[in-house]
């Protein structure tokens, strides 16, 4: 109790001396854990690991050296519902290794912590938020956890936390099941239950799903409601900033950034918000400066590293962008976005083979993100492998989690272009028309549809769509030249038809 009192009073050095000098750390794991917590607060990470012992863990999170488990507890049954000390020690080892930038070991110890005690939510949060696992690894880890009979709702909640690239009906079913589930919030009164329908953490998971589906307006509306209810929910704030930036809501970003810097000047999230505001108004130098400040405060904030790379890419500074994306790929091996952006940078410089390699790496990390398949299709198109391009674009549309929205209109147009190259004109026309349903203001769609009709010698339809394209962009060189050719072809075709009719009459 004295050591705990000193710890809570922030007298970490004195608490550690008391525990260490009395040799009590050798008698009970709880005292050793408290001593290690003192060293954690003092940022003495190597000493912290020494205090916790020399146990080893495999890549699946199974602890190999379990000698510590045989140490006797003092007053073992003195406190009901005590935390799992083995899990707590595994989690602290993970934090120490992460602080020492040994992320591979940190990942394994976080897995060990959540396996030892599925209620160790902090370990799962570190694994997910820091993108330490791929989609498959996250699913495999959850399936290996042993939940108690009363913790079924927690299993469902964890499944909503991980990457959500399943079909819309699968993900919605997960949320629906959890919202209907009763969870007992008072063990002494089993009749006193509630559902998780309005739980903020669950609704943030739903907002993240909308963001992944690129339904930014839905995401923004949901996070706005949540932040009115709980203005200090930092995970919700991060999702809200992402949605606001995608929608171009610069005023909202300005107000959010101002509030965060005022309330949390030492948090990386606050300066990340400032960077988002400057990125939104296209001031990329300032944006990059504040994203960098966020990474200096917290090197484990993935959006900040990606933001630095995107700010460089927006100014076509490819080498610096590549450097940022590579750093992000190294720090966050479970996040496919840095690898995807590296591929995009190679594609921008027409290094299509290299781009394809990185897109395939991104696909290996997250095999269900439709954006990866779209980029593979674009690479195949540029390499004139049109059959492969059609296959990739069809895979893209098959992997879109929700119904097609305007966000996926370019993919539909890309598929139509590839089909036109294969001279499958009727199928191409069908996809161009689908694209027009999604967006009526796309120059590429009208131009592609006009050119396809032109190739089919349907000059009247071609002329109509060339005119519609030029209405969107009157100075488009391709459409202007092709319209002239279509008019000439229509005149020639018309005169030939009239001669044929005269011959027929004769």
TrEMBL record:
Organism: Macleaya cordata (Five-seeded plume-poppy)
Entry annotated with the keyword Repeat: yes
Keywords for the protein's UniProt record, in alphabetical order: Cell cycle, Cell division, Mitosis, Repeat, TPR repeat, Ubl conjugation pathway
GO CC term (a single one): anaphase-promoting complex
Each TPR repeat, start to end: 268-301, 302-335, 370-403, 409-442, 443-476
Protein name, as recorded: Tetratricopeptide repeat-containing domain
SMART domains reported in the protein's UniProt record: TPR
UniProt record, GO biological process: anaphase-promoting complex-dependent catabolic process; cell division; positive regulation of mitotic metaphase/anaphase transition; protein ubiquitination
């Amino acid at each position: 109790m004295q050591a705990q009192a000193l710890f809570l009073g922030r007298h970490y050095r004195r608490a550690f001396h008391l525990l260490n000098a009395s040799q009590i750390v050798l008698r009970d794991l709880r005292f050793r854990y408290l001593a290690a917590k003192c060293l954690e607060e003092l940022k003495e990470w190597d000493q912290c690991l020494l205090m916790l012992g020399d146990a080893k863990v495999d890549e699946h999170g199974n602890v190999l050296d379990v000698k510590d488990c045989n140490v006797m507890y003092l007053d073992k049954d003195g406190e009901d519902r005590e935390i799992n000390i083995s899990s707590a020690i595994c989690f602290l080892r993970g934090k120490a290794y992460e602080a020492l930038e040994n992320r591979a070991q940190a990942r394994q110890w976080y897995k060990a912590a959540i396996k030892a005690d599925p209620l160790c939510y902090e370990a799962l949060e570190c694994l997910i938020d820091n993108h330490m696992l791929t989609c498959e690894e996250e699913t495999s880890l959850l399936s290996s956890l042993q939940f108690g009979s009363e913790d079924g709702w927690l299993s469902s909640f964890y499944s909503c936390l991980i990457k959500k690239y399943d079909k819309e009906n699968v993900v919605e079913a997960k949320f629906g099941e959890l919202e209907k589930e009763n969870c007992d919030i008072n063990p002494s009164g089993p009749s006193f239950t509630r559902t998780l329908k309005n739980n903020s953490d669950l609704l943030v998971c739903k907002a993240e799903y909308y963001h992944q589906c690129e339904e930014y307006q839905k995401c923004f509306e949901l996070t706005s409601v949540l932040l009115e209810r709980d203005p200090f929910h930092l995970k919700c704030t991060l999702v809200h900033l992402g949605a606001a930036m995608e929608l171009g809501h610069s005023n909202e970003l300005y107000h959010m950034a101002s509030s965060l810097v005022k309330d949390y000047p030492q948090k990386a999230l606050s300066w990340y918000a400032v960077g988002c505001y400057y990125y939104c108004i296209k001031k990329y130098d300032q944006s990059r400066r504040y994203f960098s400040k966020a990474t200096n405060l917290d090197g484990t904030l993935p959006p900040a590293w990606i933001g630095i790379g995107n700010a460089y890419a927006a100014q076509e500074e490819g080498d610096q962008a590549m450097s940022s994306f590579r750093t992000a790929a190294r720090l966050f091996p479970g996040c496919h976005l840095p690898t995807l952006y590296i591929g995009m940078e190679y594609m921008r410089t027409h290094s299509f083979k290299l781009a394809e390699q990185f897109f395939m790496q991104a696909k290996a990390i997250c095999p269900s993100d439709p954006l990866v398949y779209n980029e593979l299709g674009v690479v195949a198109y540029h390499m004139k492998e049109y059959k492969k391009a059609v296959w990739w674009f069809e895979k893209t549309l098959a992997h879109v989690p929700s119904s097609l929205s305007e966000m996926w209109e370019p993919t539909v147009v890309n598929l139509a272009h590839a089909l036109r190259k294969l001279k499958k004109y009727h199928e191409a026309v069908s996809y161009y028309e689908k694209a027009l349903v999604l967006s009526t203001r796309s120059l590429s769609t009208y131009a592609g549809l006009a050119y396809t009709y032109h190739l089919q010698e349907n000059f009247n339809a071609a002329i109509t769509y060339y005119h519609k394209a030029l209405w969107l962009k009157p100075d488009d060189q391709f459409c202007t030249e092709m319209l002239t050719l279509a008019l000439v072809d229509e005149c020639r075709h018309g005169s030939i038809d009239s001669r044929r009719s005269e011959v027929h009459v004769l």
